[in-house]
């Protein structure tokens, strides 16, 4: 649990365990605290590194709009701070977008790449969803109803009513009522508006696992299918019955897919 500086900003990170380094990159509303239930499993055989992007969690807040290029350079600075030549990255949603932008600039620093619920571009569909989020940001309940239900599959949302009701109260009473947090959310959402790595990914050969959710209503599986076509050295998996918040809906699959892919040895097929 420590900080490093990027330009004049403090950036928060954590390190757990030892072994092959694996960095988890947060979704847009997440922070390092969001990974609590995964810490034991992910740090058992890996050096697990968690990071709060600028405008997230315990990292410093911005005051002006920015693009995801800022978060790419924050990530690069983290690697330099820890003297890491090469790491594996797992990004979900916003974190996956940052990972894609990172690998277009610094592919030599990425061993393996795992992308959950990630798009290679901010489509008109996704841009309008982001605009709706920002338009509702002045009212906690409006923001909750605009953002949270569509993050999950209907089956998960309906089945876990107690958990969802408690989450609604927490978010509307404290988190979404916090002006500083909401200002950060608006900036983070805007930072993704120009995200488009369609051209930049054409030369990338990093070994990549792309994971879709069958009921993702924010980044539909068609976006990951297009991403799979762009990344020549990639595999694509679709999780049945899951929504955009796949890490919480399918935690065992999330863990198995990520760690299995990152830690799997390359097989020599010539000996068969």
Automatic annotation (TrEMBL):
Q: What Pfam families does the entry give?
A: Abhydrolase_1
Which segments constitute the AB hydrolase-1 domain?
20-251
**Gene3D superfamilies the record matches:** alpha/beta hydrolase
Among its keywords, does the record have Hydrolase?
A: yes
Q: Which domain of life is it from?
A: Bacteria
The UniProt GO MF terms for this protein read: hydrolase activity
Q: Does the keyword Ribosomal protein apply?
A: no
Keywords annotated in UniProt: Hydrolase
Cite the PANTHER family for this sequence: MONOACYLGLYCEROL LIPASE (PTHR43798)
Its recorded name reads Alpha/beta hydrolase
């Amino acid at each position: 649990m420590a900080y490093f500086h990027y330009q004049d900003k403090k950036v928060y990170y954590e390190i757990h365990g030892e072994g092959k380094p694996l960095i988890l990159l947060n979704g847009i509303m997440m922070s390092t605290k969001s990974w609590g239930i995964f810490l034991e499993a992910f740090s058992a055989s890996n050096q697990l590194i968690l990071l709060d992007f600028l405008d997230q969690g315990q990292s410093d807040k911005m005051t002006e709009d920015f693009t995801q290029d800022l978060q790419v350079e924050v990530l690069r600075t983290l690697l330099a701070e820890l003297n890491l030549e090469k790491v594996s990255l797992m990004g979900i949603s916003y974190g996956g977008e940052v990972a894609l932008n990172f690998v277009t600039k610094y592919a030599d620093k990425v061993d393996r790449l795992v992308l959950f619920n990630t798009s290679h571009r901010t489509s008109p569909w996704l841009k309008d969803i982001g605009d709706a989020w920002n338009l509702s940001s002045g009212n906690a309940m409006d923001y909750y109803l605009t953002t949270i239900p569509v993050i999950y599959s209907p089956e998960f949302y309906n089945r876990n009513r107690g958990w969802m009701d408690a989450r609604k109260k927490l978010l509307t009473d404290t988190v979404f009522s916090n002006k500083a947090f909401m200002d950060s959310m608006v900036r983070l959402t805007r930072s993704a508006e120009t995200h488009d790595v369609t051209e930049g990914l054409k030369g990338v050969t990093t070994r990549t696992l792309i994971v879709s959710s069958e009921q993702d209503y924010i980044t539909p599986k068609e976006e990951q299918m297009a991403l799979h076509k762009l990344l020549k050295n990639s595999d694509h998996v679709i999780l049945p019955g899951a929504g955009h918040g796949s890490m919480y809906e399918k935690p065992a699959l999330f863990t198995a897919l990520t760690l299995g892919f990152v830690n799997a040895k390359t097989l020599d097929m010539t000996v068969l």
